[in-house]
Amino acid sequence: MSFKGQHILSVKQFDRDNIQYIFDIARKMAPYASRKKRTRVLDGAILGNLFFEPSTRTRVSFGCAFNLLGGEVRETTGMESSALSKGESLYDTARVISSYSDVIAMRHPQAGSVAEFAEGSRVPVLNGGDGANEHPTQALLDLFTIERELQASGQSIDGMHIAMVGDLKFGRTVHSLSKLLALYKNLQITLISPQELAMPDEVVSALDNAGHRLTISDKLEGNLNADIVYQTRIQEERFPSKAEANQYRGKFRLNQEIYTRHCKSNTVIMHPLPRDSRQEANELDNDLNLNPNLAIFRQADNGILVRMALFALTLGVQDLVQDYECAV
Ligand code: CP
Questions:
Q1: Which of 138, 234, 276 has most ligand 1 atoms within 8 Å of its beta carbon, as the pocket-test mutant?
Q2: Which of 151, 209, 222, 223 is the most buried (most CB within 10 A)?
Q3: What is the CATH topology of the domain spanning 11-134+302-326?
């Protein structure tokens, strides 16, 4: 199985075998991510880290993952600081940056833009989120987290019950995660959102065609008795106006009191982050921070492992990481 030279643009390119292979490599990255060991396997390699839309975790974890493998990072943030704002095409930008870099990670506000960029690139391109379309590396780290969290209680992904909550229309992480979940067996999936922010039909069909048991609801109460509750933020940046987004803020708050009343005692809480902590939204209350089943920071940590694995695989060095170990 080889990912060398491949773009990572959509979760549709994965099957269960290659997901498990990526996870095997990700697990092997743990001692390097925790600085117990050090490797220079990507010494001399350059990551072009292009983020044309705000990001904290994805941008920084792509950069850290590359540094942890011994490579260097050059990045640009924001459309206004790039020549795209002068009318340069994605194709031209890709031609130029791909001659400066060995691999590129990119986020852009338009659906399909990262795939368009990849057509002009001579090196692998990893999609860090393209509009409301996909966020494949997030979906992989989400699935990696689900597998780890469930394993702790002797469960597996097959047969689990997951509830996805919030803005399922514009939330690209739930689109990508759902497409991966369609590869698994016998899931119970509860989709909770305002009707106007429902999961796109194409994604619901993929889950339906996989034979999963689906419940679609606009109510939180009575629907949280799941193994995993995956909460999301109202994606204000994808609404025509802030006022329109405000109509939906705060509708599906999860806090310790609701957790105690409606979730199982071991329901794992996930969120791709950022969570919107403003009082009017507060979809995941700080009073859950001491709940041991709140997995949101373990989830973000797992992003380093999965992104290290993806760099190693797309650059074809996954079997050389140990050979290039050096003193810590
Ligand atoms: N989960 C995620 O994509 O976070 P950022 O927007 O901070 O990158």
A1: 138
A2: 223
A3: Rossmann fold (3.40.50)
